[in-house]
Design brief:
Length: 156
């Protein structure tokens, strides 16, 4: 493998790790991304910025720009709103999904602590059963395990 190929592979790994890898770089057909090494269609932040810049500073129509960059008009307006609100850091994709264990509120966490204090060798599946019995809802054992791991990290 040549040094240039390794560098491209390293960059892709880095982009993937940071969550900024464009899932569809082949859709980017804008000439600036096809002819230059600096402009990388795999870098979603760079692609979004160039999309906005093309419309805002060069006067390219939204329809033409989104076609050239492989996006929809709706996507353009969402990116524009986020950019106007948050600036450049708004172009970095955010993690999707819940940001914390929403089923485990303070009351349930307190109950878990009580159960663990009563029986330090309690198994996750037993804890799950006790929580479901008391609070009358289903919870996954892995959710409990994650909460216990997080608790260990913050108390250590």
């Amino acid at each position: 493998m040549s040094a240039k190929q390794k560098s491209k592979q390293d960059k892709e790994t880095s982009l993937r790790g940071s969550g900024t890898l464009n899932p569809c770089p082949e859709k980017v057909q804008d000439p600036i991304f096809l002819n230059k090494d600096f402009f990388d269609p795999r870098d979603i932040v760079q692609v979004k910025y160039e999309l906005l810049r093309r419309v805002q500073t060069e006067g390219v129509s939204v329809s033409d720009a989104v076609k050239s960059f492989g996006f929809s008009r709706l996507f353009y307006y969402r990116v524009l709103d986020i950019f106007e609100e948050l600036g450049l850091c708004g172009l970095v994709p955010q993690k999707r999904g819940p940001k914390q264990a929403y089923k485990l509120n303070a009351e349930i966490l307190g109950f878990m602590n009580e159960q663990i204090q009563k029986n330090p060798s309690i198994k996750t599946i037993e804890l799950k059963t006790e929580i479901e019995k008391k609070f009358k809802f289903s919870i996954h054992a892995r959710t409990i395990e994650r909460a216990l791991i997080k608790k260990k990290r913050t108390t250590s």
